[in-house]
Specification:
The structure holds 2 protein chains of 2 kinds. Chain A is 46% helix and 11% strand. By secondary structure, chain A is α+β, with helices and mostly antiparallel strands. Chain A is globular and about 95 Å long. By secondary structure, chain B is an all-alpha fold. Chain B folds into 2 domains: 50 residues; 241 residues, MetI-like fold (Orthogonal Bundle). Chain B has 14 helices and 2 strands; from the N terminus they run H-E-E-H-H-H-H-H-H-H-H-H-H-H-H-H. Chain B has a two-stranded antiparallel sheet. About 2% of the residues of chain B have low confidence. Classes of the chains: A alpha+beta, B mainly alpha.
Chain lengths: 454, 323
C-alpha cells in the first residue's frame, strides 16, 4: 500500500511539474511573439475566423494597415462569404511587424494563401518563388482584365512574370491647408509651380501668420529624392538595379541643392523642427491635420484620411519642379499588390478572391481608395459617383498626374530596403545638423551602390 | 570460480538495473525542462552558429559563404561600430546607475517596519512589468514633447519643451532611465544579502564608536561584494541584450543614436532579409558578453570578499606551527 502511494505521488509530482513548466513565463529579457506583433503605432494584430462555417477549407488572407483598413477589408470579405462557399481566416497586423511575421511563416512553408505585397519586397518574394505567377489566372479569365490597361501590370511584374496584382496606383503630392493660405493672403499653388516658388510660399506664410511648413518627406526621403532625380529625366533604378543618375553631376547637384535649401528653411524656422516632426506616429500627431502646418508632402492615398481628420478638404497639387530641371519629376507607383503564395493549396479559389478584391464594384465601394486608385476604369467611373468629396479629389489628382506620367514604376530591386534606409538616415542626420547636404548625398550613393550590388 | 563470477555478474546486473530505475525517474522529472532546453535553446544555439556562415534570406535555402559575414561585419559595416558604441554607452551608464539605486533602496528597506513589505512590493513592481511593449509605449508618450515629464517639470518651475525621445542628446537617456527604473529585482537580491550580515558585527562596531558611514564602507560593502558581483554580471548580460525598449521608444533613432546592438541585429535579419549576417552578429555579441563576464570574474579575486575563505590561511599557519 505504501509503495502504491509512493508511486502515485511520484506521478502527481511529475504531472504537476510538467504543468508548471508549460505555464511558466519566459525569461525577463526574452521577447515573446505577441510582443513582436504588438509593436508599432497602429493597432493589434489578429487571427480571426469568419463566423460562417461552410466548408472545411479555409482561405488565409493577410494584410497590413490601420484599423480603418482592417475594418473595410473585413467588411468587403464578409460580403464575399455571403455569396460564396469559402471560409476566411484574417491575419492582419500593422506595418511594423508585417514582414517579420511573413518571413517567419515563409521559413516554415506556412505562408497565408493571399498576401498583400509591397513594392520593396515583391522582388525578393518573387525571385525566391514564395509567390506564384498570376499569368495562368489572367489567361483563363479568373482575373478579369477587360477594363484594365495591360501596361499597368508592369508594376507587378518581376523577371517577366506578373506575381503581384497592383491594387491601385499612388503618387506623391503636396497637400496644403486652404484656410491658412487665405489668412496669409497667398495664392494656392499650381501644379507646375517651381521649387523657388515653393520656398517663397512657405516663407511668406510664415511671415504673415507664423504658421510653419512640414519638412518634405522627413520619414522617407526617397519619395523626394526620386522626384528630383526623375525631373532630370532619369529613372531612379536602372534595369540592373544600379543608379544611372549617380554619375551625372547635374542630378547630384540638383539633389544637394534641394536638400541644402530644406536645411536652410529648418534653420530659419520656416520649416518645423525635425525633433518635433520625427516624433509623429499617428495621423492625429501630424501638424497639417491640426491646422499648425501650411503644407506637407504626402503620398496621395493618405489625402482622404488627413482631410477627414482636419475636417475640411485640403488642397492637393503636384510637387514643385526644381528650377533647372528638364521636366516634371512626377511618378506613379503601384500602391501595393495582392499576391498568391506558393504555399496556397487552391490557387484558383484564391485567384477569384483576388479578382473580387480588385474588380468587384461592391467590394470597392467598401474599400474605396484606401489601397490606391483602382486600375479598372469601370471601377474608377463607378466609384466617382459614390465617393465623398475627399476621395473624388484624390481621383482627380491621380487623373491629372497620369496624364503627364508615361508609365507606372516597376518594383524596387532586391536589397533596396537597406539602401533606402541609408538615404532616410542621412536626410534625418542632415536635418539634425550632423551632416551637410553634400555628405548626405555622396555617402548615400556610395553605400547604396555597394548594397545594391550585393 | 565460474559460480563466483556469475554471481558477481548477477549482482552488478541488478545494481545497474536499480540504478537505471532510479535514473529514469530522475530524467522524467527533468523531462519537461530538458525538452524545452533542447528545443528552444540547444538546437537554435547550434543552428545559429551554422547559419552565421551562410547567406540566408529566409525565403530560400541558406548558401554557405564561410567567414564572409564576419569579415563584412568588421571591415565594411559602419553601423556595426555605431551600434556597439551606443550599446557600450548604454551598458556602462545604466548598469552602475541601476545597481546604485537598487543598493540605496535596499539599505532603506532593510529595517523592521510594518510598511516595509508594502514598499518592497511597490519598488519591485516596475521590474515585473519587465521590458514589455505596453510599458515602452507608455514611456514613449511620457517623454514626448507634450508628455507627463514635461508637464511635471513645467509645474515645478523648470521650463521644459524638449521632446526627450527625439532629441539626439537625450534620446538614449530616456531608454537608460527606463532600464534603471526597473531596479526591483536587483534590489531584492541586495536585500537578501543585507539580511545575511550578522547583526553582531554592527553592534561591535557601534561599541567601538564607528559611525554610520564607517559601518557601511567597512562592514556592509565588503560583506556584500559577492552579491554585487552576482548582480553586476547578471545586469551586464541583460544590458547588452536590451531591445524592446529601443525598438518601441525610438526605433534606433534619431539618426541611429539609440541603435542598440540587438536592434541592429534585428533590422539586418528581418528587415533586410540577411538572417546569416544577423546570426554572425549574434555570435559576436556572445563573445563580447563572454569577454566582459570573464573580465569581471577575473577581477573579482581582488575585490570580492568571501567570509568562509578568510579562515583558510589561519588553519594553514596553525598546521605549520604544529608540525
Amino acid at each position: 500500500m505504501k509503495r502504491k502511494i509512493e508511486k502515485m505521488s511520484k506521478f502527481l509530482v511529475l504531472i504537476g511539474l510538467a504543468l508548471i513548466m508549460m505555464s511558466c513565463s519566459s525569461e525577463n529579457d526574452a521577447t515573446s511573439e505577441s510582443e513582436m506583433t504588438g509593436a508599432g503605432d497602429s493597432t493589434e494584430s489578429s487571427s480571426e475566423n469568419s463566423q460562417v462555417e461552410k466548408t472545411d477549407t479555409e482561405v488565409r488572407i493577410t494584410w497590413w494597415g490601420s484599423q480603418a483598413r482592417h475594418n473595410s477589408t473585413i467588411e468587403a470579405l464578409d460580403k464575399y462569404v455571403e455569396k460564396n462557399d469559402v471560409n476566411f481566416s484574417y491575419e492582419y497586423t500593422s506595418w511594423s511587424s508585417y514582414w517579420e511575421t511573413l518571413a517567419t511563416q515563409a521559413v516554415g512553408n506556412n505562408l497565408p494563401d493571399i498576401i498583400q505585397m509591397s513594392t520593396t519586397d515583391i522582388v525578393n518574394y518573387s525571385k525566391n518563388n514564395q509567390i506564384v505567377s498570376l499569368q495562368p489566372y489572367i489567361d483563363s479569365g479568373i482575373i478579369d482584365l477587360t477594363y484594365v490597361d495591360k501596361n499597368s501590370l508592369s508594376a507587378g511584374t518581376v523577371e517577366g512574370e506578373v506575381t503581384g496584382y497592383p491594387t491601385g496606383v499612388n503618387t506623391v503630392s503636396v497637400v496644403y491647408n486652404k484656410e491658412i493660405f487665405d489668412q496669409a493672403g497667398v495664392d494656392y499653388p499650381k501644379d507646375n509651380w517651381t521649387w523657388s516658388e515653393y520656398l517663397d510660399t512657405a516663407k511668406k506664410i510664415f511671415e504673415e501668420t507664423g504658421v510653419q511648413t512640414d519638412i518634405p518627406f522627413l520619414s522617407e526621403a526617397r519619395w523626394l529624392a526620386e522626384y528630383v532625380v526623375r525631373s532630370y529625366d532619369y529613372d531612379f533604378y536602372e534595369a540592373d538595379g544600379s543608379f544611372g543618375w549617380a554619375n551625372d553631376e547635374r542630378v547630384l547637384n540638383g539633389l544637394k541643392n534641394a536638400f541644402a535649401d530644406i536645411k536652410e528653411m529648418v534653420e530659419l524656422g520656416v520649416f518645423i523642427d525635425p525633433e518635433v516632426q520625427i516624433a509623429w506616429a499617428t495621423t492625429e500627431d501630424n501638424y497639417i491635420v491640426q491646422g499648425k502646418s501650411a503644407m506637407a508632402f504626402l503620398l496621395s492615398n493618405y489625402y482622404e484620411t488627413y482631410s477627414d481628420v482636419l475636417g475640411a478638404p485640403m488642397g492637393i497639387c503636384m510637387l514643385p519642379k526644381p528650377d533647372d530641371a528638364d521636366k516634371s519629376g512626377m511618378y506613379m507607383n503601384a500602391n501595393m499588390y495582392w499576391s498568391i503564395s506558393a504555399d496556397c493549396e487552391d490557387p484558383e479559389t484564391a485567384a477569384s478572391i483576388l479578382n473580387y478584391m480588385v474588380n468587384d464594384m461592391e467590394a470597392m465601394e467598401t474599400i474605396l481608395a484606401d489601397r490606391g486608385i483602382s486600375l479598372s476604369s469601370e471601377i474608377r467611373e463607378g466609384l466617382t459617383e459614390v465617393v465623398g468629396e475627399y476621395t473624388a479629389n484624390t481621383f482627380d489628382y491621380i487623373s491629372s498626374v497620369s496624364e503627364i506620367v508615361e508609365k507606372t514604376n516597376a518594383p524596387d530591386p532586391a536589397n533596396a530596403a537597406e539602401a533606402i534606409n541609408v538615404l532616410k538616415v542621412n536626410y534625418q542626420a542632415l536635418m539634425y545638423g550632423e551632416m551637410d547636404a553634400e555628405e548626405a548625398i555622396d555617402d548615400f550613393v556610395v553605400q547604396a551602390t555597394d548594397i545594391l550590388g550585393q | 570460480m565460474n559460480y563466483r563470477s556469475k554471481n558477481a555478474e548477477l549482482i552488478t546486473k541488478t545494481k545497474n538495473r536499480n540504478r537505471f530505475k532510479e535514473n529514469v525517474y530522475g530524467y522524467l522529472f527533468i523531462g519537461p525542462w530538458l525538452i524545452c532546453f533542447i528545443v528552444f535553446m540547444a538546437i537554435p544555439f547550434v543552428t545559429s552558429f551554422v547559419l552565421s556562415f551562410t547567406d540566408y534570406n529566409m525565403l530560400s535555402e541558406p548558401k554557405f559563404i564561410g567567414l564572409n559575414n564576419y569579415i563584412e561585419l568588421f571591415t565594411k559595416d559602419k553601423l556595426f561600430w555605431q551600434a556597439l558604441s551606443v550599446t557600450f554607452r548604454f551598458v556602462f551608464l545604466s548598469v552602475p546607475l541601476r545597481l546604485l539605486f537598487a543598493l540605496a533602496i535596499a539599505l532603506l528597506l532593510n529595517r523592521q517596519s510594518k510598511l516595509v513589505p508594502l514598499y518592497r512590493c511597490v519598488y519591485y513592481l516596475p521590474s515585473i512589468l519587465g521590458g514589455s511593449v505596453a510599458v515602452s509605449v507608455m514611456w514613449k508618450y511620457c517623454f514626448s514633447k507634450t508628455g507627463v515629464v514635461n508637464i511635471f517639470l513645467n509645474s515645478i518651475g523648470i521650463p521644459s519643451d524638449i521632446s526627450w525621445i527625439s532629441n539626439k542628446d537625450t534620446a538614449l537617456w530616456s531608454i537608460i532611465l527606463l532600464f534603471v527604473w526597473q531596479f526591483g529585482s536587483s534590489m531584492l537580491i541586495f536585500l537578501a544579502g543585507l539580511k545575511q550580515i550578522p547583526k553582531n558585527y554592527y553592534e561591535a562596531a557601534t561599541v567601538d564608536g564607528a559611525g554610520v558611514f564607517r559601518q557601511f564602507f567597512n562592514i556592509t560593502l565588503p560583506l556584500l561584494t559577492p552579491i554585487i558581483l552576482f548582480n553586476t554580471v547578471m545586469q551586464i548580460i541583460g544590458g547588452f541584450m536590451v531591445f524592446t525598449q529601443a525598438m518601441i521608444i525610438t526605433d534606433g533613432g534619431p539618426v541611429n543614436k539609440t541603435l542598440v546592438y540587438v536592434l541592429y541585429l534585428y533590422q539586418q535579419s528581418f528587415k533586410y532579409y540577411k538572417m546569416g549576417y544577423g546570426s554572425a552578429m549574434a555570435w559576436v555579441l556572445l563573445l563580447i558578453v563572454g569577454f566582459f563576464t570573464a573580465l569581471i570574474f577575473k577581477s573579482s579575486n581582488t575585490w570580492v570578499f568571501y567570509e568562509n575563505e578568510s579562515k583558510k590561511p589561519r588553519t594553514k599557519k596553525l598546521k605549520k606551527v604544529v608540525s
